[in-house]
Amino acid sequence: MTAAPGSGPPVASGSGPLEAVLFDMDGTLFDSEPLWDVSLADLAEMLGGTLSSETRRRVIGGNLRDTTRIIHEDLGVEADVEESAAWLLERTRQLFALGVPWRPAAQAVVESVRRQGIATALVTSSHRALVTEVLAQLEPGLFDVVVCGDEVSRPKPDPEAYLTAAERLGVDPRNCVALEDSGRGIAAALAAGCVVVAVPEDGAALGDGHGAVVVPLEAVTVDRLMSLLADRVRPRLTL
User: Fold this and answer.
1) What's the domain range around 158?
2) Is 24 a catalytic residue?
3) For a disulfide at 28, which of 35, 181, 224, 231, Cβ 3.0-4.6 Å?
4) How far apart are CA 232 and CA 151, in angstroms?
5) Which keywords does this Swiss-Prot/TrEMBL entry list (predicted)?
6) H-helix or E-strand containing 136?
7) 118 within 8 A of 18, measured Cβ to Cβ
8) Average pLDDT of each block of 10 consecutive residues along the chain (239 residues)?
C-alpha cells in the first residue's frame, strides 16, 4: 500500500465518518523544535563544527539516523553514524526531560477530539525514549495509539507509520485526518490515504502546503476536520 511520497492520497468515491485524528508530535503538537535546535547544535559542536541554518532546515521532520548522516555530510566529517545518533538521542532526551511545552491551542485541539469520542494517535519520527519523556508530562490516555520512529522499518516520508497507526486503531486511513508540520510528514500521511492538515508555525514556509490544507492550529476544530473529510476534494490552501 506504499505510494510515492507526495503523490497524494487515493481518491475515494465517498468518505465515511471521521474515525480518527492522527497527530505528529514535534512542531505540530509540541514546541520541541527549540530543544532540537540545542541538541543538534551540540552534536555539531561535539563533532568539531557548527550547524548551518540550511542543514537545520533540511533535517526537520527527519528520523534520527538520516538527521545524523546529513549533519556528518554538512560538516564533512567521517564519524560513526550510529554512535552520533545515540549521542544525539541521549542529549535530546535530557532536554525533553526538563519539559516540553504544548504549542498554543494544541492541547485544546486534542482534548476536543477526545470529547467527541474520536480515536487519537500520536505518529512521530522521534524515538520511543523521547516520546516517553513527553507522555510522562501529559494526562494519561490522550492518545489511543502511539507509533514512534524506531518502531517502523520505513520512516516518514514513507506511509508505514500512519498505516500502522490506522491498523492498530482498526480504522480506514481514508477516514482519518492527520495533523502535520513538515514536508516529510505531510508526504507520509497523504501516501497513507489520510486527509492532511498542515499546522506549521509559519504557514508561508510550506508554500502551497505540499498537498495539505494549511490551517492555523488555533483555527482547527472537530467540525472543520469533519468537513474536510466529508468534502474529500483536491486540497487547497486555507489562510
Assistant:
1) 20-31+100-231
2) yes
3) 181
4) 30
5) Hydrolase
6) none
7) yes
8) 39 66 96 95 95 91 90 94 96 97 98 97 96 96 96 95 98 97 94 95 60 93 95 53
CATH number of the domain residue 64 falls in: 1.10.150.240
Confirm if 155 and 24 have CB atoms less than 8 A apart: no
Provide the H-helix boundaries in the chain. Answer: 33-46, 53-58, 64-75, 81-97, 106-115, 128-135, 160-169, 183-192, 222-231
Contact 47, 75 (CB under 8 A): yes
Listed residue (137, 157, 155) closest to 147, CA to CA: 155
pTM, to two decimals: 0.85
- Please report, for the domain that includes residue 215, its CATH number: 3.40.50.1000
CA torsion through residues 227, 185, 36, 34, sign? negative
